[in-house]
Each structure stands twice: as C-alpha cells, then as structure tokens.
Amino acid sequence: MSGTTVPAAGDGPEGDTADGDQRMIAERSVTDWWSTAVSEIHPGVIRLRGYPVEELIGRVTFAEQIWLMLRGELPTPGQGRLLEAALVAAVDHGPQAPSIAAARMAATCGVGLNSAVATGAGLLGDVHGGAGQQCMEVLQRVVDGEEAAAIVAEYRRRRAYVPGFGHRFHPRDPRRDPLLALVREAAHAGEVPGRALEAGLALEAALAEGRVRPVPMNIDGATAIIYAELGFPSELGRGLFVLSRSVGILAHAWEETQSGARIKGPLPRPLLAGYHGVPKRHPDRTQSGPVRGEG
Asked: CA angle, corner 236, sides to 230 and 240, nearest 5?
C-alpha cells in the first residue's frame, strides 16, 4: 500500500514484547547456570530455604540451621537435639589423629589458618574419617533384613574390621553410652524409628560372640546410628562428621598458631626418622654395573 510503512522486527508493541522475551530468556540462561533451592540473594535480602535470615538469627541453633540447609525444612526439637549431640561428640580426638597433626604442622609453616584447617580436613578420607559412612551402609544392610552374624562372619573372612566398632585407644568409647541413650529416648518418644539402633546393637552382639573381650561400638558407630535414624544418606553422614571434626581441627590449628613455633615436623627436632635403605656408598666410575655399598 502506497505511503504505508511496514514495521520492522522489533518495532512497535509486538516487537518490543518479542525483544523483551528474548532478553529474559537470555538472562535466565545465565542466572539459571547456578540455580539453587538453598538460598535466594538479592540486594538487602538473604533467604535460606525460604526463611529470611533475620528471622532465623537468635531463633534456631546451629545444628537446626545445618538441618535446614541440608534437608530443606527445620527439624523437630527431638531431631535437632540428636543432631547436635552427634556433632558435639565428634569434634576432636587429640593431636595424635592424623588430620589434627597435619593441621598443626601446617599452622607452623605460615600458610594461614584457613589453609591449616583445609590441610587437616583434606586428610579425612576412607580410612581416617570414613568409618561412619561405611557403618551407615552396614546398618542399612541389617535393617533391610540381612543377619548381623552373617555380616560379621563376612568381614572376618576378609580379615577386615567392621566399621564403627572397636577402638585403638578406648576399651569402651566414652561417647557410646550417652549417644545411644539419647537415641533410645528418641525412639521411645516416637521421634525416630529405632531400626538403626537395633541393627547397631545386633552387630555389637554378633561381634562379641566367642570373644573374651567384647568389641563395643565407637564414635563412628554411635553417630552412624544417629544419622541413619535421622534419615541422612550415608554420604551426608561423612559430610556431617567432617563438619564436626573441623571444629577440633580449627581449635588445634589456632592453638598451634598462637604458640609461635615454626616448621614443626612429625618428630621432635632431636629425633630423626629411621632409615632402612642401603648403607653408605660411593660412586665408582671405573666399574660398570651397580655401585657396591660399604661393609
């Protein structure tokens, strides 16, 4: 039609809407890259699992906050007490623990407190720090119907330790009884099912069969029962142990930082590591083949 201008793409109300939709799609493709249901952050706004942080401050405990962040809802008072008890019980086991010792050594090397803590926490793996997660997996096998005695026999055939039982230092781990007493109370009150507790006690009884000295549950077993009763998956059981033990790692690293010591190694300075290699020897360039040692 003569004298009529056809709107170009993007001109006019319809074009503006299309452009706005495209911009929104492009923006969401970026902002959704790390989309999360854990926290919502805007200028002047911090919401954790939907709760404004200012309404949580002073109203929930740290253990309850941990539960909220991991599970999405606040725990019941009974659940919060059990979680807090497990976290409190596992915070430390002295500088002879490799994770603590490593953190203390790192603290004397000028790496900074954060790096010292990371050094210690980084040592918590399958062997040192993983028994709780492994015990949770064994407890689940019993809950699912396997006989505790058969599982113990399986571990004995493999010459392996049943995770969560026995201790190198303690004939009876002093943390076992108070933790299990809390689980019994919670089970009696209907706050937890009690099945993991029954499974742990069955394993403990099976381990004692035919032995003069029993093999009581240790901290890993007791906290594994609590985390299992509270419905945490086994991987989070390990994560919660690491979170708890990090408190002890931090305390030891800070103490060592305050001592003023520098570059402390694994042995006191007058002592040296043993040597079991070849004796002293010298290169003999006139002969071919291996260099002979003295003596």
From this structure: 85
Q: Are 196 and 228 in contact (CB under 8 A)?
A: yes
Show the CA angle centred on residue 182, arms to residues 178 and 188, nearest 5°: 140
- Nearest-Å Rg of the Cα atoms of the chain is 29
pLDDT of residue 289: 62
Question: pLDDT below 50 — which residues of the chain?
Answer: 1-9
**What b-and-e string marks burial along 261-270, b requiring 16 or more CB atoms within 10 Å of the CB?**
eeebeeeeee
Give the sign of the dihedral formed by CA 204, CA 205, CA 207, CA 213.
positive
Q: What is the pLDDT of residues 192-232, one digit of tens each?
A: 999 999 999 999 999 999 888 889 999 999 999 999 999 99
**Structure token digits, residue 286:** 């006139």
Amino acid 17: pLDDT: 77
Identify the pLDDT of residue 6.
Answer: 45
Q: Could you tell me the residue ranges of all domains in the chain?
A: 45-75, 79-92+129-249
What's the CATH fold of domain 79-92+129-249? Answer: Cytochrome p450-Terp; domain 2 (1.10.230)
Q: Output the pLDDT for position 295.
A: 53
Report the pLDDT value the prediction gives residue 171, as an integer from 0 to 100: 80
pLDDT at 27: 84
Structure tokens at 239: 């994560």
Q: Which residues does 121 contact at the CB level (< 8 Å), separation at least 6?
A: 99, 103, 242, 245, 246, 249
Q: Which of 177, 259, 180, 191 is nearest to 231 (CA)?
A: 191
Cβ(86)–Cβ(240) below 8 Å: yes
Residues forming a β-bridge with 41: 46
Strand order in the sheet with 45-48: 39-42, 45-48, 51-52
Outline where the chain has alpha helix (H): 12-31, 53-56, 62-71, 77-89, 98-107, 113-121, 131-143, 148-157, 176-188, 195-208, 219-229, 234-259
